Records
---
Amino acid sequence: MSAMPWPVDPPALRKLGESHEAVVERDLLATLDPLGRRGRVWIAGLASVVGCALVAWIYQLVHGLRVTDMGNVVSWGTYMTNFVFFIGISHAGTLISAILRVTDAGWRRPITRMAEAITCIALLVGASMVVIDMGRPDRALNLLLHGRFQSPILWDLVSVTTYLTGSFFYLYVAMIPDMPLLAKHAREHGRSPRLVRMYEILSLGYRESPEHRRLLARALGAMAVIIIPVAISVHTVVSWVFGMTLRPGWHSTIFGPYFVIGAIFSGTAALITAMVIFRKAYHLEAYLRPEHFHKLSKILLALSLLYAYFTLSEYLTTWYGGTEIDVRLLALLAGNGTVGAVFWLWATFGLFVPIGLLLFPSKRSMGSIMTASILINIGMWVKRYLIIVPTLETPFIPAQNAGITPHYFPSLIECTITAGAFAGFVLLYILFSRIFPILSIWETAEELEEVEHATVRAPVKMPGRAMPAALPLLLVAVGLSVLSPWTTARAQAPAAPASTTHIDLKRTTEDKEEMLVATVTANGRPVAGAVVVFSVLRKFGTMALGEDQTLSDGTAAVKYPHGLPGDSHGEQTFSIEVRSPPALAVPPVQVILGGAEPVRITPVEVPRALWSTRVPLALVGTIMALLLCVWSTYGFVVSQLVAMYRLPKEG
Amino acid sequence: MYMTIQRRQFLKAGMVVAGGAAAGMLTRSHAATDESTKSSGRPAGEATLALTAEGDLVLASAPSGASSHASDEARRGVPGKKWVMVIDLAACDGCGKCSAACSKSHFVPADREYLRIFKMQDSADTAPYWLPRPCFHCDNPPCARVCPVGATFKRDDGIVLIDNERCIGCRFCMAACPFTARSFNWSRPDNSPAAEAKGYSPEWGYPRRVGTAEKCDFCADMAREGKLPHCSGTCPMGAIYFGDENEDAVTNSKGDTVQLSKLLRDRAGFRYMEDLGTQPRVHYLPPADRRYPAPGERGANTLNASKGATQR
């Protein structure tokens, strides 16, 4: 447990002789008081931006994605940038809350809930961005009906769903001890009975008792541990949407960790920004104190250095290696054009300036930390844009070679929807803070109990009761019904020509060489000096084999086409034509001869491959095993909550 | 005819809900049988809806699922075939007739091309040449790998197709294709009456649907009938060969049918960007001893300059 003198009680309240807990309770519940005029104006403003975005989305649904500036070359843009950005922001909750909880850092207490709420809300907004980017959102159900586990999008779907579920659990479990307080507070302040009822239901009958505490600690401990790998997997998988392609700038082995670090980096910056705003808006100066900002700023500094390191290793190796396509990408990304200017602006103001602001402890102030955080937030959006768009502008075969100039700049609709996403994020965050105190009351108060009465950390055990992986994992079993046997349409010899000329075809061996011998007879007598053209039928035409003049015995011969496959029975249709003399000329006669090498038809069984309809077993097995681990832990957490609910009620 | 259209509109209206799926499937397969028996007077395209293979009535598998999907036949391809294309870069003069014929027959809107001609020059010291790029129908297709719903799929006969009745429009395939071979229906398509009348199959890709991806389909329906794809059949230089790899023969518009293995061996055939490992089904013959003015030379063709304005 931290021995920090925390929280420092507001001196004015101290005088009244109130207990610490009472002060904390009152201060933090005060954040739920009805909003003033300014607050209401803010909410109305944000809601109208969200409304505009909804109208823009409906417009897009009606007219198709043509209303964006995306095209067949640059086929992803702002929406995907938003998706990566918001999923990145969602990592705030994991780092601060889970890592600090697992490492038992006492100072985390007033900020965990803010972080966890960012996670949940950012995930909702981020997931909605994918739906907005889809050409056919009405077919989203196909992901369940026909989902292919070979696609990183399915990995995304599964991991984001798992993360979202886990984040809501995690946020909720940590809120349970506040629920009875909230119910009491709402009742006393004459709030709607429905709200009171909701708090009561959510409290699961929690009260301060050793048994309740023990169950809560176990649930929270398990959640804090499991949510860390889940969060890492989420942003790894998001990076793999890009990393698994063959595109320059995307197909990078460090993309997983690069994105994870970037996510935690932007998430921490978002958390600091939120703390600054709420501190001022809800007068929480006594709780969100400079030392919190200082501690977080150290984490932010470490992350910004890490991000700079990853950026350097990514681009330096690409540049030094200097393959043609990489050089072309870097020329666009860091060159003289607009994109290059944006890149260097990002590197300066999104990375170096924040590092400078955070580097020297003596120079670190609330103002500089806040400036750094906001710059990082903007910068990380820009960076995601710089990851997505320039790569798409650099296809292997330059579009310029076909007279096409790839270009992309967010359209008005895209800007409106993006503004709506940000406004929606802030709005949901404010609304959350209107219903639940944004600072955890019980955890903040807990810090005051200086005694060894500290909570016993739940031993992190794997659950005794496994819950079936509940995700709707629908694998499309492609029933391969038996192919109807294919029979090559055998060319039939056309009806004998009216002429009396007759052609006979044989395959013989002369001087150890296999020959195709045609015998031309007219009125039963061999014809000498006739030019015979040999060819063999293929699907789209006749392949010439050669021509020969008949000898006195009426035979003409060409080499037998060795190695040329026949049909499945080894039969081939030859086409024989007598071209001259004109008197004897006959249209091509088709003759079927056997004995050719039968066509080699590759087995029709669909392999288990990344591209096929059948999923490789190792892949689906790994995914299922990971899901089972995570969801059974969720099951364990639920079992603890159920046990809590079943404990004897007070009174 | 009237019945068919009515049924299609019925489906289009999204009235077939999952609840009635089982019953619906039964009635639908019966309906298909009835139609196929009286389909003689209808356009050729309707025949595939009746699921006939080479004239045999194979109605074992009607379109499955509650939503309409590509028939099994269109998903599996022509049994025993492995379609392959060879493009002779020494013969291509960049005239663009292949692309025009393709666009015309597929009703391709002006903002895209299935077959795009690039003006290439590998280095300053090497001669420029034209590179016609259809879809490569890779044997290890990056697009089919990443498709989350199996809307793009590889058939047994080698063709990679898109089912625009299943596509969710995520455009991952477009990002994954290293050759930018795919296009997207960004706006609501303006399907011609002819396109509407033929009815949809992934084998020809129209009528188009908004918010779905599309690309060169190797003229899967033409190959089935033993006809060369439009690009190959049109090329005035005979530069585009098409055939069946199993038969070891390819044919061009001049009627030259040549042994595939011999052609590739003798002319040093190669596949574009072999190092990416996608294993294209389109081979190129190097632009050695060209029989045309190279790009930039006197009398050479030029790219359509208006493209830049309409295509992105």
---
Amino acid sequence: MAAHITYLSEAALQNKFDRNLQDRAELSFGFDADFQVESYLRHQGSTFVDRFDANFYLYITRAMDYFDLGAEYGGTLANAFLETKTEFCIVSFTSDWLYPTAENKAVVRALNAAAAKVSFVEVDSDKGHDAFLLDEPEMFKTLGGFLRAAAQRRGLSSAGA
Amino acid sequence: MPKLRPYLQLGGLRHDFPIIAEMVAPNSRVLDIGCGDGDLLQFLQLERNVDGRGLELSQTGVNASVARGLAVVQGDADMDLVDYPDGAFDVVILSQSLQVLHQPRGVLEQMLRIGQQAIVSFPNFAYWRVRWDLLRRGRMPITSDLPGPWYDTANIHLCTILDFLTLCDEMNLHIDQALTLSRRGAAKPIGKMPGWANLAGEQGVFLLRRG
């Protein structure tokens, strides 16, 4: 449940559920799911528990905690990207609090410092982290343009195709 | 699609683009500061085959540029140029954006730190129409280069061609080329009579390097 909240945004939850009650006319002042948002999160929580082994989350979380790319390159993230031939496209969403814009920009700064070819776009969305799975026309335009241009440079598609 | 001259194909180009393209050597590494929708970068890719990057403040401008396949990042020229390494580019361009910067001098210094050369173009506030407008109406001028009333304009650091020449002198910059542009896009060298150019030129376009 806690994890699921981080995939969404406060604004999106507010819009969807507000303080609406779940199958009842008034508050019960107990520990049952009085609010629709509670019921929704409980449902998502139990679905997750059915689909995944909770121990995976422990391992993934630890792996993420121990991951420090800059540390492998003398403590400077930019060094990790020196001499790279890769073209980078970084997209952040305004309401994503797992990968916030400020942290994406730190990666962009490191790529710039390594003189890498990088595009960076912040997409305005209230869909939170999950926005990248949803219908976000700005993201599609960005990705489409980036991929088309990269393909053209490599002779993989003709102009406008 | 038939091959058109890029400036016809793109349409609606600002008339300093061909002049700027003349100043950029083929296959250069170029950074365009305040690149907007990426019109100039795309023009330079087509005309000069540059390896182009862009920095743009507005989200709509960045998104439009990236959707065209340009390598553009969202950022603020006043703050973010310090992140670029020394000498990363052959040419750093500031086209029609000098007057919107908070720290125009600081940005110029950064431009010539990260680039071998800098190209700067800006509306000349001493252009005769601007002077006449101010004299005749006694109000802040509104021209094609300076649209919008004083309270609703991004132009916070307006200067004249003479002012810019003084700044280059103070910063000990070497001027490789200095041109004025008329509203029809005719370019003239500023030459030995900068006072006249300061009156007759609607825009100034400068190619600079460290002195």
---
Amino acid sequence: MRSGGRLWPVHLVLAVGAAAMVMPFFWQVLTSLKTFTEATRTPPVWIPSFEWANFAKVLDETPFLQQLGNTVVMTTGRTLAQLLFCSLAAYAFARLRFPGRDVIFVALLSVLMVPGQLFLIPQYQIIQGLGWLNTLPGLIAPGMFSAFGTFMMRQFFMTLPAEVEEAARLDGAHPLRIFWSVMLPLARPGLLALGVLTVLWSWNDLMWPLIVNTDPESMPLSAGLSALQGEHMTDYPVLMAGSLMASAPIIVLFIIMQKQLIQGIAFTGSK
Amino acid sequence: MSTAGRAVAVKASARPATRRRLRNRDWVWGYAMIAPLVLGLGVFYLWPVVQSVYYSFTEWTLFGDATWVGLRNYEQLLTDPANARALRNTFVYGGLSLLGIPLSIAVAALLGTRGLRLVSLYRTLYFLPVVTMPAAVAMIWTWLYNGDYGLVNYLLSLVGIHGTSWIAEPSTALYALVAVGIWTQIGYNAVIFMAGLQSIPSHLYEAASIDGAGRARQFFRITLPLLSPSIFFVSVLSVINGLQMFDLVYLMLRRGNPAREDTQTVVSLFFSRAFEEGAKGYAAAMAVVLMLITLVLTVIQFRVQKRWVHYA
């Protein structure tokens, strides 16, 4: 406690900063519980009349639950696919030898240097050509593959000791078997970090859904919020209720998985 | 999160020192295991780049037929004043978002104070804006910035300042958006800086203390130079993210907003040209130019880094 006393200036600065980070969310929650008249009063009303009808309105007037379902399916699909495809390829790039390996790897990574706008028009055409506009597969497909995830998992596999798989190799197990039953369990921390990053990116992704799924029933929450904003331009209590409902699941997930997310981000900065 | 930023990360690690024997069956398994990814990235990312470059030399009819028009899209890019404006805004955005870096370093350094309690609580709070959906962030800030009933103007009125309609005013909208962008990135950058700070060996500080160097001197002589690789990484990332600015512009400057025309960025303009107006060839040309700009800026940053980044 002695050091705690000396550290009060540090706490003061950090607390002021934290207040600036949290104030907007506090205002969002407060507004979502106000009536429209309360929300537009100056000076602000600090004790709201708990107008739960705002939340009911979001549920009644938009396909919120449908969009929540779309978001969950989209995020799950993209995340599981990335974990599988990226780690599968990453293991091969890290541990197997085959002609052209490094050239292929660098070619795939070149994707990371290109701004996303160069992919979007052809991606849209592919989805349109498949008849997948306004469908879940269309929402999911391009996001199933990631050069970044492959890079991240390859780095991870390279930190694992070779001895473990050496034993399995001598027993005659084939690479896929080694990957699945030896390496993948060891790679759990890496998979979790990549998984959390992918969930976060996918849940919040806006541009791709705006492009392919323009029908409210097929939108995820991000695009749904944009539509809600278009309809309820100035009904701020309803907008705040909607934005709170749409972002709350990922915030809860972050609080649970904080360690993995921080590790994933620290990883992107360290390499 | 930006993709090109990661490219920075990628360069460092090519060619692993594999010490295993070459086995023939590895070939087949290797190709089989990378096949799904290569196919997916090829179809959805690599080939589309080629297509987009081709499209940039074409014009599209309503029915989706493309005809070759040579450099006409690029000529048009130069003559439309909206592009120059969007480019200027994009640079302002990318440049000003660097202002968040000193703030993030300060947060990271303070959180690293020895013996500090509540670190994980602070970290969670600073991280909230990072994980919140940009669509929600945009809504919250649109409301905070509201000219008549927004919290920002109320707080300003307490200190005697009469605020404006921040995001409906062409002279303030861009900067109001920059502030939101910085707000969302501080926590993310601080995490990267915290990792960087932890990798600085503590004996350096002990030695400096023995030599009588004070806190401030230690910070400028040890912390900052050894943190420079992280600072470089974050600044490249910030500039690239700035160039990619879309979500906030799209959601906070909706149709009917008087500041909308003046505050478009390259990507938001690309989006409306390609997917709202259907000018896909023209939009493809914009994307190609954006790629070139990103490339040039990244190369410049890598060149300049040699002067100030110290790799231990």
